[in-house]
TrEMBL record:
Functional summary from the UniProt entry: Cell wall formation.
Catalyzed reactions per annotation: UDP-N-acetyl-alpha-D-muramate + NADP(+) = UDP-N-acetyl-3-O-(1-carboxyvinyl)-alpha-D-glucosamine + NADPH + H(+)
Protein name, per record: UDP-N-acetylenolpyruvoylglucosamine reductase
Keywords from the UniProt entry: Cell cycle, Cell division, Cell shape, Cell wall biogenesis/degradation, Cytoplasm, FAD, Flavoprotein, NADP, Oxidoreductase, Peptidoglycan synthesis
Family assignment from sequence similarity: Belongs to the MurB family.
GO process annotations (BP): cell division; cell wall organization; peptidoglycan biosynthetic process; regulation of cell shape
Family matches, as InterPro entries: FAD-bd_PCMH, FAD-bd_PCMH-like_sf, FAD-bd_PCMH_sub1, FAD-bd_PCMH_sub2, MurB, MurB_C, MurB_C_sf, Oxid_FAD_bind_N
Pathway connected to this protein: Cell wall biogenesis; peptidoglycan biosynthesis
Record domain FAD-binding PCMH-type: where: 32-196
């Protein structure tokens, strides 16, 4: 298959939802940079997505995107099909001590639904500005808890269009990692809460929100924690010790507020942001001998 075939509308199977060619990532992902998705596909429902993927040439790469809070899309764009789940995938329902969330539901929505049902244990999702699907993929977490602690099962549409509900144990969760194969799309997650006091749960969520506001550049164009915390270290301390606070390349800057965050000060390209991250890695390695590993996922083609 050639790039031209991938670009051709004829390469796409029928879809009840919408398809958009050359769709800009910079319009919606957190960094507000990056090239275009060759095709941005928004399925209407799970069956629509499954039929589409079953009929799609297996050679076409498929990439699910949430709200891009952990993503650098390179300036040359992303070949193939990018799947963005629309609002119809964002329903949240309480089932006893369980919270069933569509993969497009935001972390704050899931945490708030759990609080309203007096279910504790999901408060940390209040501080993670991504979708439930992205959180499962990344094993997102904060304050000593992560998705692996609360996930019961999740429903996935495989690259070949088969639909499977997998127990949490099948996701191979590690720190900010799942073993979900690329191209597999989480469409729904079932989380477990524990009965608690609504006021206490709400107070904890408020504390998390305030703490984040004080310590992170939440109003900036950013991608969250740039590097994973290496065993026995805090990434931000290593970056700071290497003298990188405020360091800039083009329009990209190491946040002054939190040194494990990179920000787009206005006119950054994805190349600026990635080059800055790599420069920080090199300086940290030279200063402390530690190899920082990217937490932010980088996808697409360099210009
Ligand atoms: C200000 C800020 C604070 C943050 N704080 C934290 C934190 O405390 N803890 C933490 O863990 N993270 C944090 N992050 C990072 C980010 O919010 C999480 O990684 C989040 O889970 C990503 O969700 P998303 O929907 O934005 O995914 P995206 O960034 O869109 O995608 C990330 C990965 O998930 C995959 N993905 C997305 N949706 C699906 C799906 N439906 N099915 C399968 N794969 C999918 C993508 O293909 C990609 O591989 C923060 C980010 C920001 C900007």
């Amino acid at each position: 298959m050639t790039a031209a075939d991938v670009l051709s509308p004829r390469a796409l199977p029928p879809l009840a939802g919408s398809t958009e060619p050359d769709a800009s990532f910079a319009d919606f992902i957190w960094f507000r940079t990056g090239g275009a998705a060759q095709w941005l596909v928004r399925p209407r429902d799970v069956a629509d997505l499954a039929q589409f993927l079953a009929a799609l040439d297996p050679a076409v790469p498929v990439f699910p995107v949430g709200v891009g809070s952990n993503l650098i899309v390179r300036d040359g764009g992303l070949p193939g099909v990018t799947i963005r789940l629309p609002k119809s995938f964002a329903r949240v329902a309480i089932e006893g001590v369980h919270i069933r969330a569509g993969a497009a539901a935001m972390g704050i929505t899931v945490a708030s639904a759990a609080r309203d049902a007096s279910l504790a244990g999901l408060e940390f999702l209040r501080g993670i500005p991504g979708t439930a699907g992205g959180a499962v993929r990344m094993n997102a977490g904060a304050y000593g808890r992560d998705v692996a602690d609360i996930l019961v099962e999740a429903t996935v549409v495989r690259r070949d269009g088969t639909i499977e509900t997998l127990p949490a144990g099948d996701f191979g969760f590690r720190y900010r990692h799942s073993a979900l194969p690329p191209g597999d799309i989480v469409v729904e997650a079932l989380f477990r809460g524990t009965p608690g006091d609504k006021a206490v749960i709400g107070a904890e969520m408020d504390r998390i929100a305030a703490e984040r506001e004080a310590s992170q550049p939440l109003r900036s164009r950013t991608g969250g924690s740039t590097f994973k915390n290496p065993m026995g270290h805090k990434a931000w301390q290593l970056v700071d010790a290497a003298g990188c606070r405020g360091l800039t390349i083009g329009g990209a800057q190491v946040s002054e507020k939190h040194t494990n965050f990179l920000i787009n000060t206005g006119d950054a390209t994805s190349a600026d942001i990635e080059a800055l991250g790599d420069e920080v890695r090199a300086r940290v390695k030279a200063q402390s001998g530690v190899d920082l590993e990217w937490e932010i996922e980088r996808v697409g083609v360099k210009l």
